[in-house]
Amino acid sequence: GVATAGEVVASMLLFLYARSAPTSVVPIFGIILLFGLCRAFASPAGRALPIDLSPPEVVARVVALKTVGFQGGLIVGPIAFGFAFVADESLPYLLSAIAMSAVVAIVVFVPSSDVRRLASSGARQAIHDAFEGLRFIRRSPILFGAMGLDLFAVLFGGAVALLPAIAEDRLGVGAVGLGWLRAAVGIGAGVVAVTLSIRPLQHRLGRTLLWVVALFGLGTIGLGLTRSFALAFTAIVLLSAADAVSMFIRLTLVPLATPEDMRGRVLAVENVFIGASNELGAAESGLTAAFMGLVGAVVFGGAATLVVVAVWWRLFPTLRDMDTFDEIRPTKEAIP
Q1: Rounded to 5 degrees, what angle do the CA atoms 273, 129, 256 make?
Q2: Residue spans per domain, the chain
């Protein structure tokens, strides 16, 4: 709640900055830094909380329902913000602050008695705990394989970061068209999330994870090659649907494979690496676009994702052969 309140402050600062007819971009970096620091605390806590409040047998369904809400926001948000931007360039930041204020209000009503608390520790112990989470991930083939696969897929398949350029240079659509392209991400993922909330995946989870990441790569290649808005929209829907299946498996697998007293640490490490891959993926897409051109950058990212899947298929047989969530049990054997 406190971290999300910090995000509200950052959004309001962006709103005020946009309203002030700015002449320098320097303040943006400070505001983004504040937002990123708050998100670094809010994200792992937000992911761990629903799991801590749910019995193990319903974790998969809870993750699916949580994803439905998240993807619903991805559908409505870009469309609404596209129209809001047309009306007033500063309005999206105000809407963001209002939405996150609602999150803070909701978190206040979570019964504190239901949330498990760990004893506080000093700075040295906190640093040790952080590295302990990293060691646990490194020595667990399933966790390391699943997180690494997602990290590299996002790193190379970050074509969504180039959507403004794709919309302008390849498709010739404006802000509203760009909003619909961004909404396509939520539409594809939202359909999958609703489906998985009704009928969660049951078997062949490891192979499914690898195949859907490969489909994500193929969709990225298709997005890079097309000049049709309809085909680009379809490609984004398909690749985002594949990404949603991958995310569902990973978000369910990680807490189930992690002991309760380490869950926050492991999720924090995951959040850092996955969050970093998102930002580095956007940077990678921009750099490759500068050297290869827009089409070359997107196609290269999709092809690199396919290579990552092929390598992971051979390197992580435990992950590849994973069948059901029921066979996943938290263990501390990975920690020396």
Answers
A1: 65
A2: 2-112+123-327
Q: Give the CA count within 13 Å in the CB-facing half-sphere of 262.
A: 24
> In the Cβ-directed half-sphere of 125, how many Cα atoms lie within 13 Å?
5
Q: What is the tens place of the pLDDT at every residue in 280-336?
A: 777 777 788 888 888 888 899 899 999 999 999 999 888 888 888 777 766 654 444
- 289's tokens: 């676009």
- For residue 7, give the nearest of 93, 107, 108 by alpha carbon: 93
Assign domain 2-112+123-327 to its CATH superfamily.
MFS general substrate transporter like domains (1.20.1250.20)
Distance CA 124, CA 134 (A): 16
Residue with tokens 């435990």: 318
DSSP per-residue string spanning 61-74: HHHHHHHHHHHHHH
Interatomic CA distance for residues 81 and 88, integer angstroms: 10
pLDDT in tens, 60-98: 677 777 777 776 776 777 778 878 888 888 888 888 889
Dihedral angle sign, alpha carbons of residues 158, 159, 160, 164: positive
